[in-house]
Amino acid sequence: MDRITMCPTLEVLHVLGRKWAVPVLDEIYFSDKHARFNDMESALHPITPRELNLMLSKLVSSGIVEKLNLRGKTSYALTKRGVLVHDLITDIKRHGAEFGNGGYNCTDVRCGQCEQFRVCLDKWPGPQAQANSRSRAISDNMVDPKGRN
């Protein structure tokens, strides 16, 4: 069976478009290079342990975050790819501050600690809407590397 691949740009956008991706990446980036699960859970309230675990698993499997075992304790750090992705997030924040609604500037604030983000988070589409959207995106954007569509 031939392998079908997704557009790399859409793949990154798919990961970053998840509800907790940006706040989790922000938390890891600003936590002195290594973030512990419990610290992230506290900082990102109202995230549930299950949501955080699923998000970290997705970020690890995407090569954006690495899971470390330091002195018998698990922590998470951004990979080189993760640092580049966080740079993109910072650019998006700058763009939003310059061109976004109301000129709200969030470039110096962690997403998980931002009141504006929490307001928007409450309006985020639920998992079923995200699953339906993902299924459509994958089926609409799959490419056969041999050019047979």
Essential attributes:
149 residues; two-stranded antiparallel sheet; 11% strand; mainly alpha; globular; Arc Repressor Mutant, subunit A; two-stranded antiparallel ribbon
SSE diagram, text form:
Blueprint: E1 5-6, H1 8-16, H2 21-29, H3 37-43, H4 49-61, E2 65-70, E3 73-78, H5 80-99, H6 115-121, H7 127-141, E4 142-143
Antiparallel strand pairs: 1-4, 2-3
Helix pairs in contact: 2-5
Question: How would you explain this protein's 3D organization?
Answer:
The model is unreliable at 128-132 and 134-146 (pLDDT under 50). The chain has one domain: Winged helix-like DNA-binding domain superfamily/Winged helix DNA-binding domain (Arc Repressor Mutant, subunit A, Orthogonal Bundle), CATH 1.10.10.10. The protein contains 7 helices and 4 strands. It has helices at residues 8-16, 21-29, 37-43, 49-61, 80-99, 115-121, 127-141, and strands at residues 5-6, 65-70, 73-78, 142-143. The strands form 2 sheets. It has a two-stranded antiparallel ribbon with strand order 1-4. The chain has a two-stranded antiparallel ribbon with strand order 2-3.
CATH topology descriptor: Arc Repressor Mutant, subunit A
The best one-word shape is globular
Q: So, the CATH homologous superfamily?
A: Winged helix-like DNA-binding domain superfamily/Winged helix DNA-binding domain
Number of domains: 1
Assembly category:
single chain
The CATH class: Mainly Alpha
Average pLDDT confidence is: 78
Q: Which spans have pLDDT < 50 for at least 5 consecutive residues?
A: 128-132, 134-146
Strand elements, count:
4
- N-to-C terminal Cα separation, in Å? 14 Å
The Rg value, from CA coordinates, equals 17 Å
